[in-house]
Amino acid sequence: MIEAVREAGGYPTTAEAEHITSVVLSALGGQITGDERVALAHALPRRAAALIASRPPAPRPLPARDFVDSLTEHLQGATPATARWHAGSVLSALPPLLGTPLATRLLAQLPSGYALLFGKAELTPHP
Q1: pTM
Q2: For 10-64, how does the pLDDT look when each residue is reduced to its tens digit (9 = 90+)?
Q3: Can you list the pairs that 77-81 forms with residues at least 24 positions away whose Cβ atoms lie under 8 Å?
Q4: CA–CA gap between residue 7 and residue 65 (Å, rounded)
Q5: Is the torsion defined by CA of 18, 26, 4, 116 positive or negative?
Q6: Alpha carbons 31 and 33: distance in angstroms, whole number
Q7: pLDDT of residue 126
Q8: Distances (CA, A) of 39 to 32, 63, 98, 103, 104
């Protein structure tokens, strides 16, 4: 997983990719609840699963923009643009590990805007 993040984000070192992955997965852990949270943790490598479990779930997930903005507090020197890059680099590595059914369930639980971070098109039904 770390190698996929490193490649997606163009990070020069494994250590940098690991740090960014830790911050983003920990933040994601606060956004997911219930069976999807358990399934997400089971689908990930042990260290990544621990990061998901390390943060208690929020009563309501943050909008995608606020989620990205929250990352700037934990990533030294990050701007909203770089935080969005980091989030996308990590979250887009998840669907291949999780499989389409779980990735779809996670996105259904999150507010709109997260699909793009997961590297997916965000389709909205027409009224």
Answers
A1: 0.91
A2: 999 999 999 999 999 999 999 999 999 999 999 999 999 999 998 899 999 999 9
A3: none
A4: 24
A5: negative
A6: 7
A7: 42
A8: 10, 22, 9, 10, 12
